[in-house]
Amino acid sequence: MGKKMNFRIMKLIICFFMLPVLSGCLGARQINDLEIVIGMGVDKEEESGNVLLTAQVVKVDMSGGGAANARGGGGEDSEGYWNVSSKGKSIFEAVRQITHKTGNRLFISHNQAVIFGNDVATEGLQAYIDFFLRAHEMRPTALILVSEKKASEVLDAKPETEKYPAMNIAKLVKTYGFTSHFYEVNMEDFASCMMSDTMAPLAPLVSIVQENDCKEIYISGMAAFKNGKMVGTLNHDEARGVLWVLGKVKSGVIIVPSPNKQGEAILEIIKAKSKVKPGIKDGKIVMHIEIKNEVSLSEQTTTEKLATIEALEKIQEATSEVIRQEVMAAFEKSKDLKADIFGFGEMLHKKYSKEWKSIKDNWDEIYPTIELNIDIESKIIKTDLLKKPVSQNKEEK
Amino acid sequence: MKIIRYFSLRNKYMNQAEPDEKDSEPISPDLEKNLEVIKGILHESSDVTIHEFNFGPERKYKGALIFINSITDKEEIHKNILQPLMYDVLLLSNNMDMDFTDIDTIRMNLISMTDNLKVTMLNDLLDSLLAGAAILLINGSREALAIKSIKIKSRSIEEPGTEAVVRGPREGFVENINENIALIRRKIKDTDLCVEKFVIGEKSKTDVCIVYLKSVANPKVVEEIRTRLKRIKTESILESGYIEQFIDDNPYSVFPTVSNSEKPDKVTAKILEGRVAVLVDGTPFVLVVPMVFIESFQSVEDYYARPFFASVIRLIRFMSFIISTLGPAIYVALTVFHQELIPTRLLISIAEGRERVPFPAIMEAFLMLFAFDLLREAGVRLPKPVGQTVGIVGAIVLGEASVQAGLISPIMVIVVSATAIASFAVPAQTDSGTLLRYLYLTLAGIAGGFGIILGLLATLMHLASLRSFGTPYLWPVVPLDLTGLKDVFIRMPIWTISKRPSAITRHDSDPYKQSPDLMPSPYKNDSDDSR
Amino acid sequence: MSIEKGKISSQQLLFLIAGFVHGSVLLIDFTVGITEHQTWMVILAGLVITVPVIVSYVALAKRFPGMNLVQINDMVYGRFLGKIISIYYIFFFMMTLSFNIRDVGELYITFLMQDTPFIFLLIVFTATCAFAVAKGVEVLARTSHLFVVTGLFAIISTFILLIDQMDFSNFLPLFELPFIKIFQGIHIVSVIPFGETVVFLMIMGCLNKTEHAVKNTLSGLLVGAVSLFIVAIRNTAVLGRTQTIWTSASFQSIRLINIGTVLTRMDFLIGIAQTILMFLKCSIFLYVTVVAISQLFGLKSYLPLVLPLAGIEVILAATVFQSPVDHATITQNAGIIYSVPLIFVFPPLSLLIAKIRGLPKPERGKGT
Description:
Chain A is α/β, with parallel strands linked by helices.
């Protein structure tokens, strides 16, 4: 018993010590060996047709001992980030080529946004998007954007209130609710739309405004894709039209002329809901869209008293009219682009699956013949702090 | 390899014959000869007093009194043994036919002390002498009388140092076993309380008592303890820790299966649940078996405070145990293997903090944990005046200065400090917690999150298979017992806990310890005049 | 007579079965590629089909109390044929165990810890399973309810956290796919998560009271099926069309959780829950294999076989497939075919033969 016990214990001890050697701690990556990527941009290089990949990498302050020391010292305007770029025939090759410049592997789990340049988008994203879906480090919650010109320029624009441009861009997109002139699209949504036979994906469009040596970026609308290729853009109002139909409007501003045409009433959107019901009538496709929203009177430029029931009703009608115009504008644009940006095809598919089989092959011809039956109901629910506008005390009617 | 040598020695020792009993002679009738022998055996120690005297009618009987004056009560001996023998015997002079060489006569009629014992063998005499008895030898008698008259100065009852409470009795056990039994007796005034005494240890002959409630304790457990205690054959038992290691169920396990305590109310509460307490003379720490894992998280104060607060505190204790064992491991696993799980801005701050550190994260963690254990150990041994200073120096040096010098990152300091503080919240598991902490840290360093999960699973399997004197160690969580769960994660109000823990008490007794419908209700009176 | 001396209660059997079925949650990704948004129907149908078969298992176990599958085979089919059938079962156990261990390795290699060497993960995982099995089936049974509660908590909490991203119109149209695909899906589902419970025929011999065995087994199966159902619904509702392209739809849907800035990046938690449940499943498999082999060879105790068998399984798991693609193809096409007789044919057949022959006969002169 004694000898057997000795041997068993020695074997266990040897095995235990072999374990760390076997694994070699191979999966371990110390934090400072990582290049934390927070934004990526994909462009096409003119001469060779290769992919130009720009990665925005976090630069960690070298002085250590906490951030307080770093910011205090030095007159040099130290940026916290570094835009490193490389070329390659495909995105994954370009990613690995970056190690020629950085020495560490890129760590793309914290990627906030991927920006595709205009040239890449018009050529077709099909060839470029696979890496971002397949890479296990990449998260499907990363945002996707299209730049009006080149993606690397967008990543260069230094924001004033935010340390990193990529985070700034992500913030801009995520706060779409304030104006509802575009909406945030992440990788998962985009891929889902691309998989559909009929639906046209949308992505926010980023533009750069140059003002006295100071580049500022802003989101100027949305880009529409068909079969992976960018076919056109939607401006703010058209994009909002899409959002009204999809029910994604959170808040925003609507300007309507006041009842006696002397000025304007400006309304803030509080809540909006929509319901879309597809229908087939006499061989024609009809979409019944019902939009309900609640607004509040936030500003008026005339002196008339708008806080009466009649005036409010007139304003409500005017609001509905504005919304209708936005939706029709969006629909017209989509007919021009021949892109089903509302997702009507999928809605038909879900309800009329038998008819869908015959319809979907001719979708491009059938789409412009769709009839929209829009029913909008707006309600003004409050007028903020003023009951009457500031004006001299004239004869009140 | 010492451990291998241990096994071979053990086999050799077990096959040896039992050592012979010490030569045991009977006492001879000749007083002088006895005294010579005894003096010789005791090597003429200076604290052994041998007093020869004459007594009896006409002073014709010779006797001798032997006692060790450092441990006996001289006043008692003088008043109650010498005085009756030397003076009061005159009162009995009427009965001249009393035979004063007969120890029984003297014992029944003259000695006014209780707790006396007739001895005929020399080694019994010496045992009693060394245990604090006064030995009365009479010329011409083959028997001697050992009269117990022990008086030892011991510590007064004061608050135990290791288990201070905010609310509750501030008594603690002392080193004297009789006083300890007295403290328990004061709280349980029931006829079923049994006290059984054993004497363990060849040279120390320590008194060891087990205390239990016969109507509630499981007889199999009691029998098992008796067997295990009788099996111990060692030279000395200096502390209850020795007994604990001899009666342990699973000596190779990290987790203790025998609990100990210094507070009488805690031990009494456990006895009332059906456990058995083992008291050891010379130490205030009383062992209680069987032990389940959950007990380490229960403190007596929980039962004196009101239920909601007590439940919250208990949950905090669980959380702190988890933090103290898994804290550094999770930090290392996250920052080394799974950086994608940390929010982006936090990751950037951590990276900034770690910029100048030359070590990999695991080494940093090991160094800090080791430094902390060093500090703790040094802190226990420090003399009181120096303690405060060294504590501050340790904190400042190891914390601030190391961060400034770029040896460790600030977040590591926070993690290790949190671990350290949390490790003291669960006192019974500090030793196992320390070992587990190192184990999980190693696993995290090798295999990241995967290693931690497997370590946790292996620990869980090990805990689930442990038994403490027949009770599953993770009762009532693992063999799921819903009534037992009332007292585990939260403490339900005291009037809902009406049954005793079923795994510990005997199965044929009434499980209810109080009536189930004792919920307090507001005072109801018939007339509504107080509105 | 019996190798396993421990006894388990039927409530513990409930949790064992629930945890076992739940451990196969990630395996329904096999069917998602085929049945897309109708996976939930397939799961329900699979459950309904497998219930009578499982009732027959329990009836068989009740008829031969205290005996495990190998002993039952011996009694029903006679010495020679019974041993052949037991060898077939043992082959099934060993192969499925290696597939499952490989699955755990692939889970980590693909999603969570990419750079660690594959074989290292397998060794460490199997070592822990071997440790648990060496402690005995009682310990596993006792701790099973903890695992089930953890798994259920993980699933329900991720479901709740994803509610705002769910789009229930993804389930329409309801009956789009051709029936052949649904049939294939039902076949897969009834074999892999539900049919593997045939291993419990080895464990049911350890029940100490068989009165409520049927009720508890079916409840356990139901609990496991409910968790699979919730997962299928969650994946379809959240991912919609894209669930067919991801390697593991469950992981991707969890990666989408984004509440506040705090509750993001929860995929590791699912990894933890899944590892724990796969641990339970692999430990049960390992235990069953070890006991079956020891019973076949008439050994007195199964402990010496645990470590060698674990070693064999690790090697098997590391070498049996080349890549997850291989794994998926072979399991979907071949693995199911050879499992069908073992799951659907042999136990009811044994029950029938036992009824006809009036087994078990009490032996004359000896106690049972």
